[in-house]
Specification:
The chain is α/β, with parallel strands linked by helices. It has a domain at 373-610: P-loop containing nucleotide triphosphate hydrolases (Rossmann fold, 3-Layer(aba) Sandwich), CATH 3.40.50. It contains 24 helices and twelve strands. Helix 3 (58-67) packs antiparallel against helix 4. The longest helix is centred in the N-terminal third of the chain and has 50 residues, at 90-139. The protein is elongated and about 135 Å long. The mean pLDDT is 81.
Length: 614
């Protein structure tokens, strides 16, 4: 909470102004009961004064009452501002009521201005928090996304930040007004009767103790609520993304059972959190009612004894009710505060994650964009205790097509991830045109590389926009050229709006092969020095695959390309074939050379083309 409130620091002048407005509103509002008490005194004094003989002074009237045996009545009159024989002064009452009305109207307007300013401050803080989280996500290493649920991260960025916004919005303004009201009302109560003020204050530490104990018990449950919400979002996102697969395998019951389990866990955590925190308000109200009874009894006795006026007791009772009201409000805000704090912890956990290393300053840049890539004794592991790549050395000359083959888990995709600096090497180095890529900025490095993955990704927008994503400043002619080279142009004219056809975020209105061609066109238009194809043709038919191979051959001219392939038919023409097993290069050479060796590549090839080899 301290850290969350610390984000108000840049808005300090505005916060001070809000506090001034809130204090002004509170001062104006707390004066009201005292003035109303004065109006009550005018009425009561007039009513009693009319009963006393006209022409006497107050002291003479009191003495006459004592002589008549009405000592208690005499004590009460002695403490009043009566004029014997004079009735109620309605003119004075009208003035007091007009003044009270003006105070309350002004107080409401000032309070509205304070709430408006505070709303602006809170929304500014939340906007900055969203910006910080968005920027943080782009600075996180790929390792973080590989080890955390996307649904949970999405829940932190959306649900948790929205909850923080609501919590601050609903509690901060009320909290400021409540605290200032307690201070102002307490000051007025002390000015009226220090004894009754002491009685009223006795419930404060007890209320604070009760609230603190309940908040302590409810906080873990609120933390569990938002943790489970993130897990539930992750599960829903996973099941919706794989809905087709779930349907194909008939696993609806298992998915529903898993959802029900998480949903039930969220229900139990939410019920406990809200129930426990919800007991704060009734408890404080009960203590406030006890306080009200004590003040009413003692105040009545003091009026009867003449040590207080009826108007003062009335004002004090109003103050006592107003005094417990802010405390009750604070108690009712405990659940919102606890919920907001639980969400803040989850958001700050993302902001506190270790970021990828900073780009070097000054950064190096290759003097020539030739596309020569060299691995020099590279070592890497996802888990420090289980090395994956050890002492790997490889050179890809400009314009070469380097095919990387091997069994699943051999480290093929890891190799290209290291080229892209999605992960940092643990030892050795990788150079691009003689420059260590760790000394280059990531933006500079990745601007020289075009990458097409097996898993296609299209965003909601037109086909034209999706192709131009690889080169934001591309002209329409460049988009069309990239589309023709990648054979997107062959199918796009059959769509209702051609290149302006809008693709939804899942790309459900185009086939898997068509989506793959669009991503290849995206790489074409970027005109990179290095091209990485990770099973890029796995989703296209054999004829289209042949066409794409011819297109990539044109694209590879004077460019280095790394091709990860399981279908060895796609890499027969590769200049260099690298065979990997367990993170090591076990063979390298061209297609004919590796077949003649009858080693690991021969076995892989034989497993796919046994008939051709025989």
């Amino acid at each position: 909470m301290k850290r969350l409130l610390g984000r108000l620091r840049p808005h300090r002048p505005a916060v001070v102004f809000v506090l001034v407005l809130a204090a002004t509103s509170v001062v104006l509002s707390v004066i009201g009961p005292r003035l109303l008490g004065h109006a009550t005194n005018i009425i009561f004094d007039g009513a009693i004064g009319r009963q006393l003989p006209e022409g006497l002074t107050k002291d003479e009237a009191v003495a006459a009452l004592r002589a008549d045996g009405q000592s208690q009545f005499a004590d009460m009159v002695s403490g009043m501002n009566v004029v014997p024989g004079v009735g109620i002064d309605f003119s004075a009452i009208g003035q007091v009521l007009a003044l009270v009305l003006a105070l309350y109207v002004t107080s409401s307007m000032v309070s509205w201005a304070a709430a408006y300013m505070l709303n602006k401050i809170v929304q500014g803080v939340v906007r900055q928090l969203r910006n910080d989280v968005e920027r943080k996500i782009h600075r996180l290493p790929l390792r973080y996304f590989d080890s955390n649920s996307r649904g949970d991260l999405l829940s932190r960025v959306t649900n948790d930040i929205d909850n923080i916004s609501q919590s601050l919005q609903q509690t901060l303004s009320q909290l400021v007004i409540a605290v200032l009201s307690v201070i102002g009302i307490l000051a007025m109560m002390i000015s009226i009767s220090p004894l009754l003020a002491l009685i009223a204050v006795l419930t404060v530490p007890l209320s604070a103790l009760v609230g603190a104990q309940i908040a302590k018990r409810s906080k873990p449950h609120f933390a569990m609520v938002w943790k489970t919400t993130g897990e539930l979002n992750g599960q829903v996102e996973e099941s919706l993304t794989g809905h087709q697969l779930v349907t194909a395998y008939g696993r609806h019951r298992e998915v529903e059972a898993a959802f029900q389990e998480k949903n039930e866990q969220l229900y139990r955590s939410g019920f406990k959190a809200q129930f426990i925190s919800g007991t704060v308000m009734p408890t404080i109200m009960f203590l406030g009612n006890l306080n009200y009874v004590a003040i009413a009894v003692i105040g009545g006795m003091r009026v009867a004894s003449g040590t207080m006026t009826l108007g003062d007791v009335q004002a004090f009772i109003q103050y006592s009710r107003q005094f417990t009201q802010p405390l009750t409000q604070i108690g009712s805000m405990v659940n919102l505060l606890q919920s907001g704090i639980a969400s803040a912890e989850r958001v700050f956990a993302v902001l506190d994650e270790e970021e990828q290393s900073q780009d070097p300053e000054p950064a190096a840049t290759p003097s020539q964009a030739r596309g020569r890539v060299e691995f020099e004794d590279v070592e890497f592991s996802y888990d420090k205790e289980n090395p994956l790549i050890e002492g790997l050395s490889l050179t890809a000359e400009p314009g070469q097509m380097v095919a990387i083959v091997g069994p699943t888990g051999a480290g093929k995709t890891t190799l290209v991830n290291l080229i892209m600096r999605f992960y940092e090497v643990d030892g050795g180095r990788i150079t691009l045109d003689g420059t260590d890529i760790s000394q280059m900025t990531r933006d500079d490095l990745r601007s020289r590389i075009g990458m097409v993955l097996q898993d296609t990704w299209l965003f909601g927008g037109t086909i034209r926009d999706n192709i131009a994503y690889g080169h934001p400043n591309a002209t329409d002619e460049q988009v069309l050229e990239a589309a023709r080279m990648s054979y997107v142009d062959r199918f796009v004219h059959m769509l209702p709006d051609g290149y302006d056809t809008v693709i939804d975020e899942e790309g459900s209105n185009v086939s898997a092969g068509e989506k793959q061609l669009i991503t290849i066109a995206r790489a074409f238009i970027a005109q990179p020095s290095i091209l990485i194809l990770d099973e890029a043709t796995s989703s296209v038919d054999t004829r289209t695959e042949s066409l794409v191979q011819h297109a990539t051959a044109v694209l590879r001219s004077d460019r280095t390309s790394f091709v990860i392939a399981h279908r060895l038919s796609t890499i027969r023409d590769a200049d260099l074939i690298v065979v990997m097993e367990d993170g090591r290069i076990v063979e390298q050479g061209d297609h004919e050379e590796l077949l003649e060796r009858r080693g690991a590549y021969f076995e892989l090839y034989n497993s796919q083309f046994a008939g051709a080899v025989e």
